[in-house]
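Quiz preparation item.
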């Protein structure tokens, strides 16, 4: 059943995905994930679509995962299966022939930020902020975006963001190549539309081949990183340190980690 919080619309050769859960700053739960993956699968079967805009309503593009909802949709699944399902779904981005443009306002956090990193072009409103807070929650980023972040920023910036969870503002994101443009908030949607229209006006086969060249430079590393993330996150989920992390938080005491 369609989820009104994730919309897919068409305007001529341009498709528009909209995160429309502004009350929760477009945080994703299981149902929104399923709607997103269905939208991506549909777009993979639409060769008439020449460009995709993936935008968000409200004050944030997406604040990441609605952690209170994890596992509530359908039957309980293992952490490994939840990750595998998420990987299969988001990798459909690579099956879509049309480039995906992501205009970001406000926060892009965690898995949502990583999903944006897997797309083709990111532009930022002046108030955009990007963050990977997972290590502070005892886990690692696990949606494939760290490989792209490493390619864009290098070892130092990627390590700083992943290990400390520090945010990157719009200007810093531009300096490191995470976004290609920074524009006033009021111009964000219009700029994304302008980019999409320019791409849609170019010869279809030319755009397809150009995008394929760029993807071949980076996609193998993304897929390899995701395979590692699946193994390591599953290990973390069953580790003594992660159990101690949760226990210490519940009991409001300092944790005692053993590295296992």
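Solution:
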């Amino acid at each position: 059943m369609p989820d009104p919080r994730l919309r897919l619309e068409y305007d001529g050769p341009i498709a528009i995905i909209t995160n429309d859960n502004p009350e929760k700053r477009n945080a994703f739960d299981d149902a929104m994930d399923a709607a997103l993956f269905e939208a991506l699968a549909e777009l993979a079967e639409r060769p008439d679509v020449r460009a995709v805009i993936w935008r968000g309503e409200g004050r944030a593009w997406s604040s990441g995962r609605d952690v209170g909802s994890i596992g509530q949709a359908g039957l309980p699944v293992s952490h490994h299966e939840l990750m595998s399902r998420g990987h299969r779904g988001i990798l459909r981005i690579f099956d879509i022939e049309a480039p995906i443009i992501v205009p970001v306002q406000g926060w892009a956090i965690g898995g949502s930020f990583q999903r944006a990193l897997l797309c083709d072009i990111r532009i930022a409103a002046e108030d955009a902020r990007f963050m990977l807070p997972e290590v502070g929650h005892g886990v690692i980023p696990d949606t494939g975006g760290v490989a792209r972040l490493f390619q864009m920023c290098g070892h130092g910036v990627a390590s700083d963001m992943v290990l400390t969870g520090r945010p990157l503002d719009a200007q810093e994101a531009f300096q490191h190549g995470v976004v290609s443009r920074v524009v006033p908030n009021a111009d964000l949607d219009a700029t994304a539309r302008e980019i999409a229209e320019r791409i849609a006006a170019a010869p279809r086969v030319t755009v397809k081949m150009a995008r394929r060249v760029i993807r071949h430079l980076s996609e193998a590393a993304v897929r390899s990183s995701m395979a590692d993330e699946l193994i390591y996150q599953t290990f973390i989920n069953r580790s003594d340190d992660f159990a101690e992390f949760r226990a210490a938080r519940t009991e409001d005491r300092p944790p005692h980690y053993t590295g296992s």
